Structures are given as C-alpha cells and as structure tokens.
C-alpha cells in the first residue's frame, strides 16, 4: 500500500525549475518540518527523485543551511535543525537519490556509479532555496555527504550558490577493512568498469549503529528501514565512485568559499560492545581525513574534536554542545 501511494504521489508531483513550483507536504518528523519530492532525470535504474526537507525560522530570515547526510543515512537530526533555526538560519536538508525518503522500488539503496550523480540534487535544492529567499547559505555535509559536498564545491567553482562549506567527518578515507582496502580495492575498481552491479560486503560492524540507536546503546530515534544498524552490501560501482572521488581530493580541490573541517580526535576499532564506542570515530581513519583535508586549496580550517563520534552532532551531550558552539561561532564570522 505504501509503495502504491508513493507511486501515485510521484505521478502527481511536477517540478518546473524555471518557476520554482514546489509542493510541500508534512514531513515524517512532524514538528513543523515539511518535505517536497523532486522528480529528477531517470538514470540506469529508471525513475529518480530527491527529497527536500525544510523548517523555516519563526521570523523571516535570508540565512539558511543545507544539510547533506552520509552513507547508510538520511536526515533525522531534529536537534541540529533546531540549533540552526534558533540562530536565525532557515533549515533545509536533502535526502539524496536512493536514500531515505527518496528511495524508490526500482532502486538499490545507496546505489551510485559516479558521485557527480548527486550534483543535480544539490543544484536543484540550492536553486529552490534561492527562489524561497535564502540569500546566504551554509552548505554542510556529513561523511559521504561531506565528500560529495567537497567535490561539488570544487566543480561549481565560480558558480557557487552557497557562501561557506561545513564538513562533518568527511569520507576522505574508504570505510572498509584495511586488508580489503590494500589488496582488493584496485581489482574492484577495475572490474567495476564492466560490472558495476556486482555486490560486495564491505565487512562493516554493527557496533557504530548500536552506539546511535535508542533500541541498542544509543539515544537517537530514527528509522532502521532507512538507516539499518548494518549498511546493506554495496556494489563495485559504489566502491569505484567513492575511490575516484577520494582520488580527486588527493589531487587538490579548489574551493573559493570558507571551509570548516571537523573530525574526531581519534579513531576506534572495537571488536565487541563497550562504552569506548562513544569516544571516537568508529568508521573512518581520522589521520587520513586530516591529511586529505589539507589538499583543499582555499580558506580552510581543520579541527579535531576530543570525544567526538563519527557523526559529531550525534556525540554525547557535552561533546556535541561544543561542536555546535564551534560551528555557529565560525558561521557568524564567515557568513555576513
């Protein structure tokens, strides 16, 4: 029934970029959040959509933030939205194609063959934000979203519709076991050219998911259908797309807007559950994140967050409060 209803809604929604005609409905989060489904150009799997989620400030504001989620993820971070709204930023997020609210029955979750496929989702969302009166925009990305945002900022050099870039633990490191990374990755990348749909289990642990969700050891409530404790297997095409994106970072990214890169102060690699999971990044090698972030050409700053988890704004209360303070104070300086 849900699939049928979604298909009906999809047929009813039409988006004309030139006129900014967007229809919003109440979002699954409630509490004043609204969403709009945007029909994009079909790709190798067929129909494609992205989903814009927004909540405006009580008083009219021309400042806004656009949040881009990570891998095996979608937007659910209400607290983050409220922090920005309190500081006078209209809040927007986008569930990228094949993630969360944007997933369609014809698609494999998270499927991508080139990270530039997401640029259309960002272009569309930013254009809509501009049409809705957002003059100053902070573009923010977490993990895979941070990698995508970085590449996008470089690709839109000179044509930016944003004024600053925030990267929360950007995926500048491949989140797979080191053995797979060193031995199998080159073969996978090569094979992906002809066999992008071949699936592979990246060997990711459920412990990070368990550290977040309230039904395990965490404090956050979100859909395990959209964000399962263990990410579904990726395919060779995904591995190649991420690898090639990371290679572009290594070669240097020209970003003409101020950039803030935040990451945990340490990586952790627990084999079984312990509260150590709350003290570091259980997904990425932060040494590589820090190293690759220095390939940004432009005005950037990098800050390590003691006690920060992979998604810094889902860290324990004292840590995330410090993260918000850092972000908002920086934004005040760079977004006038």
Automatic annotation (TrEMBL):
GO terms for molecular function: hydrolase activity. It holds the Pfam family Hydrolase_4. Residues 1-20 form the signal peptide. Keywords: Hydrolase, Signal. Residues 61-265 form the Serine aminopeptidase S33 domain. This is Alpha/beta hydrolase.
């Amino acid at each position: 029934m849900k699939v049928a209803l979604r298909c009906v809604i999809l047929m009813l929604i039409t988006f004309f970029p030139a006129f900014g005609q967007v229809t919003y409905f109440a979002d699954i989060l409630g509490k004043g959040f609204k969403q709009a489904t945007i029909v994009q150009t079909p790709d190798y799997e067929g129909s494609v959509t992205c989903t814009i989620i927004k909540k405006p400030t009580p008083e009219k504001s021309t400042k806004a933030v656009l949040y881009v989620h990570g891998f095996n993820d979608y937007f659910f971070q209400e607290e983050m939205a409220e922090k920005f709204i309190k500081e006078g930023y209209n809040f927007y997020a986008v569930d990228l194609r094949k993630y969360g609210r944007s997933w369609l029955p014809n698609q494999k979750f998270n499927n991508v063959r080139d990270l530039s496929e997401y640029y259309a989702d960002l272009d569309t969302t930013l254009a809509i934000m501009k049409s809705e009166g957002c003059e100053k925009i902070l573009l923010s990305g977490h993990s895979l979203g941070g990698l995508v945002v970085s590449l996008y900022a470089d690709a839109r050099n000179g044509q930016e519709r944003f004024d600053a870039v925030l990267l929360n633990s950007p995926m500048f490191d491949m989140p797979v076991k080191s053995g797979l990374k060193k031995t199998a990755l080159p073969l996978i990348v090569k094979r992906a050219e002809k066999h992008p749909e071949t699936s592979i289990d990246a060997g990711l642990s459920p412990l990070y998911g368990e550290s977040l969700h309230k039904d395990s050891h965490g404090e956050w409530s979100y859909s395990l259908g959209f964000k399962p404790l263990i990410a579904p297997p990726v395919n060779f095409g995904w591995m190649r797309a991420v690898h090639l994106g990371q290679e572009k970072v290594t070669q240097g990214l020209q970003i003409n807007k101020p950039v803030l890169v935040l990451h945990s102060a340490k990586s952790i690699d627990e084999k079984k559950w312990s509260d150590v999971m709350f003290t570091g990044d259980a997904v990425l090698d932060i040494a590589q994140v820090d190293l690759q972030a220095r390939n940004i050409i432009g005005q950037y700053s990098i800050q390590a967050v003691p006690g920060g988890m992979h998604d810094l704004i889902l860290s324990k209360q004292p840590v995330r409060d410090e993260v918000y303070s850092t972000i908002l104070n920086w934004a005040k300086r760079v977004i006038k």
